[in-house]
Batch of 2 targets.
Target 1
Amino acid sequence: MNTKEMQDEIKRIKKEKDMLILAHAYQSQDILEVADYMGDSYGLSVQASKTHHQNVVMCGVRFMAETVKILSPNKHVYLANRYTGCPMAQQMTKEDVLMLKEKYPEYAVVAYINTTSELKTVVDMVVTSSSAVRILKKMPQKDILFIPDPNLGSWVAKQLPEKNIKTFQGGCPTHWRISKKDVERARKEHPHAEILVHPECKPEVTALADYAGSTTGIMKYAKESDKKEFVIGTENSIVQHLQFDCPDKKFYCLSVECVCHNMRQTTLVDVYNTITGKEQEEILLPEDIMQKAKIAIDRMVEAGK
Ligand code: 13P
Ligand code: SF4
């Protein structure tokens, strides 16, 4: 079977089996072409909260599939490739959060969506990169513990000086690979280009960029801009997608090192195997974890509107 034949089969079977395919923006082009929806972590959560399909296949990483399951507990949710974890989601446990809450009882705890479902059972709010500023602004609490990504946390804090946001150690190992030197080199090599980065990048990188936003925020900005050249500071798949969508513009990687090996693990064959039932990883979570984690995730979907 070649790529086109496999894609046609996936499209045929997903209709037959009432399956919805969700793909994060970092997935490969051949997967995006069979997906019903492509988006950032917030967009994927919104889709999950309103789907009518009985079966959902997530092409992304595990916490994304778990979020879908929590938002749609009565659906069958599958992770297209069982080995795709997010290293950032493993950086803090529920026990770590409980310890922080004891130390800072007067603070509200806000967790980035890139965390485990168990951790989400003890936090006040969940946010994504595209919804964090909007949601924190609406929260009545001034004092906030932002976990686990200090880069995203300090980017949010800069935009909300009225809040007292405390961050901790952690972050995305993929975006940490981008340095200030990469930005300086890109400015020299592409003097007419705009530099667009993800807020998971280090603060000194984000400070020198022309725009910082979520994966789909970056894509939207580049598509709508009158500029013709862009240097992209997020997972390098976004460079390929933008080049594909905007053939009259030029896109460059801010760092060739910005590759998420977890996101890149999922292949079209994994999607095919999941949808045909040849190899499936169904997401099953304990009932009490789903119910408790749903409270903070529902708050995010509602407050993010
Ligand atoms: P967003 O798509 O929400 O910007 O998240 C980026 C990311 O690193 C997902 O793991
Ligand atoms: Fe996790 Fe970073 Fe990969 Fe996103 S890009 S899945 S945050 S390691």
Target 2
Amino acid sequence: MSRITSIEEYHKEYKRSVENPEAFWAEQAEQFVWKKKWDKVLDWNFNEPDIKWFVGGKLNITENCLDRHLSERGNQTAIIWEPNNPNESGRKISYKELHSEVCRFSNVLKNNGAKKGDRICIYMPMIPELAIAVLACARIGAIHSVVFGGFSFQSLSDRIHDADCNIVITADGGFRGAKDIALKSVVDEALKTCPSVKKVIVTKRTNCEVIMQNERDVWWHDEIKKVTDDCSPEMMDSEDKLFILYTSGSTGKPKGVVHTCGGYMVYTQYTFENVFQYKKGEIYWCTADIGWITGHSYLVYGPLLSGGTTLMFEGIPTFPDAGRFWQVIDKHQVNIFYTAPTAIRSLEALGLDFVKPYKLNSLRVLGSVGEPINEEAWHWYDENIGKKKCPIADTWWQTETGGIMISPLAGITKTIPGFATLPLPGIQPVLLDEKGNELVGNSVEGRLCMKFPWPGIIRTTYNNHARCYDAYFSQFKGYYFTGDGCRRDENGYYRITGRVDDVIKVSGHLLGTAEVENAINQHPDVVESAVVGFPHDIKGWGIYAYVILEHERKDTDELKKEIIASVNKYMGAIAKPDKIQIVSGLPKTRSGKIMRRILRKVAEGDFSNLGDTSTLLDPAVVEEIKAGAI
Ligand code: 7RM
């Protein structure tokens, strides 16, 4: 794995990676343990799409995350676990221990009927058992599908169904700040409609009461007693599926993004080491939940592939107070800290008194991910957390890209607030106009696409390959379309301008507006709804819902509460509407299409220029919507 150490070297490597991608990526892949070397580096077309990296290669990613580090750093800490409650003792798990625990749990999975190729759903809080469960699946060749613990039973059930999972791994409950979440009971509710699930493995965390269903449910701590830690890694093909991770799209149903073993492994380690300039022995902390792609790639796989020490935090930034992140950084002497703009903005809003008690002098590199970081937040992060000594890596990427795509290399690439800066080696971004013409040169703005594959690219959407084509490869023939708008400035630096489709990033979480509408429409009094985003100081984007009722309700406040409860039930608290406006109609064209442009403008509070409304079926609704705007 070549580590870039200067900007000259970056330009040289970039050029080489574009001129000869296969040689470039083969070189990066050499250092891993392969059971059999690949026959061909790359086979691809974006028309189906059909993309294969390291064709014919055989490997197991956990052998590369764990076994290969044992001789050199068996006693080094692999995972530092920091619990929700700062007074509870955490854990430090060495590579040797992690290897042993993963092997044991792999045997538990096998004893419970898991086989290579099975889909296993993981619905857990941020405890070490979550990372162990993920790695154990990968070790035996089962495909993990981690569902974020904040999703409701309905979202969980939809995901279990779609992937046809036969096992669920969960916990009795989880701690998040001052709250306890009863995860097992959510699983019970979800499984009422999931006959494919034959086993539920439950770990104890909160000791809350749970109902164990005979035959189906088993305790982690009982099962683990029955096994040894002897489990050789399953031999996987480079293109065997490693995991499925659901992400929102512009249509209602989330898509099961599929990543495969070989390419994902090479790409996550390469990007982890180069973007963060990770040095042996450093303490690295990514605050993302493992339920999101950032947690998969840069909390679990990337750092462990690099033999690093990765910190896993169970809690939230504001518990017991808004100084928690900074306290943890001092406590564990964190060197690299990777978080989301929404967290930075919310902590900034609570004031510097929560930052002042801490030294933060172990920090060397800061990272940002999930949404554009506004200049204000960038400077606050730089001055108050990095003390103007830590480079900030504003990393742009997606669930579908597997790893970071456009980002500074920390300390190497000159940064500009708000810019993700330059593509990593191997990444060939292009900006297209609406007609699909490439905008060449600098000082241009368009739709961000990729014209060549990289090892971490999405391979398919689970069980529905056509959907993968439709969502990413159909708009512009021969390109991967990201769904983002982007500007390339006069120096060739990239600035992401935001989504150009019907998904919104709320507190860094991607939500489909159609998905939220479906959840709202579950309310018996709702006839129809339309959801759009509006700029929100802390969340980046907030959710604005226009709702048509079947009959008038005088108790508007109560109704709004019920609608929020419905969203909670069918999706989860992350999709909670910030504003709900009751309307008698929606601005529709004669062909029945909702003119979202108008709804967005009104939600933004900008009534000045609503554009052409002449195609509207009933222009009067626009006046009503304007008058009732919140
Ligand atoms: C990693 C992740 C992907 C979408 C993406 C963008 C937005 C992510 C940045 C960003 C501006 C960034 N995966 N996005 N990172 N926008 N600057 N540094 O977030 O699948 O959940 O979301 O997030 O719109 O398309 S994701």
